[in-house]
């Protein structure tokens, strides 16, 4: 084998391999770049801010395609108050926009971080599943007052990743009551 044919072979391999390597790197970059940031405001719920932040943290740890943080221009707002039988609930389009109402009575009775993470799940697009076990965050209060799981399970995480894969926005508004 001549040096020339060895050189041509090496260049051919490099030309074939480089697009694969470059494509792999750009896919990772585009995946990371595709992460949508939902800006939230906790100013309407000062007594529960620490629990809201902890609930946001549960989602931020669990998913990559969407991240939630306090920032200017909030599209998702948290407010606290007494909401009677309605309790804590979300009025949202399920795409990171709306208002989450945190109820004083429920916060005194149930796990505080679970409530905020659960309601945030609605803002991200998940619906209630009251018949679910404590391991399902979206089972909400249906799992009882002894349930302290505030993290989304695998199925909930995968649903959010799929829904937010390309940034998730829509004009439709719907309401979830707990």
UniProtKB/TrEMBL annotation:
Disulfide bonds join 134-147. Zn(2+) binds at residues 118, 122, 128. Keywords: Calcium, Hydrolase, Metal-binding, Metalloprotease, Protease, Signal, Zinc. Transmembrane segments: none annotated. Binds 1 zinc ion per subunit. Binds 1 Ca(2+) ion per subunit. Ca(2+) binds at residue 111. Residues 1-27 form the signal peptide. Its EC number is 3.4.24.77. Its cofactor is Zn(2+); Ca(2+). The active site is at 119. GO terms for molecular function: metalloendopeptidase activity; zinc ion binding. It comes from the Bacteria. GO terms for cellular component: extracellular region. It catalyses: Hydrolyzes proteins with a preference for Tyr or Phe in the P1' position. Has no action on amino-acid p-nitroanilides. GO terms for biological process: proteolysis. Belongs to the peptidase M7 family. This is Extracellular small neutral protease. It comes from Actinokineospora terrae.
């Amino acid at each position: 084998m001549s040096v020339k044919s060895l050189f041509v072979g090496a260049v051919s391999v490099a030309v074939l391999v480089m697009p694969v390597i470059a494509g792999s790197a750009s896919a990772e970059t585009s995946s990371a770049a595709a992460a949508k940031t939902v800006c939230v405001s906790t100013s309407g719920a000062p007594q529960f801010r620490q629990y809201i932040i902890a609930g946001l943290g549960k989602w931020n740890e669990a998913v990559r395609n969407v991240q939630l943080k306090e920032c200017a221009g909030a599209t998702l707002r948290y407010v606290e108050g007494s909401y009677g039988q309605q309790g804590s609930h979300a009025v949202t389009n399920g795409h990171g926009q709306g208002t989450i109402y945190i109820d004083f009575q429920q916060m005194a009775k149930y796990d505080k971080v679970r409530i905020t993470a659960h309601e945030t799940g609605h803002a991200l697009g998940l619906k209630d599943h009251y018949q679910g076990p404590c391991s399902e965050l979206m089972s909400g209060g249906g799992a009882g007052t002894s349930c302290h799981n505030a993290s989304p399970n695998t199925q909930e995480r995968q649903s959010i990743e799929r829904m937010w894969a390309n940034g998730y926005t829509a004009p439709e508004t719907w309401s979830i009551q707990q």
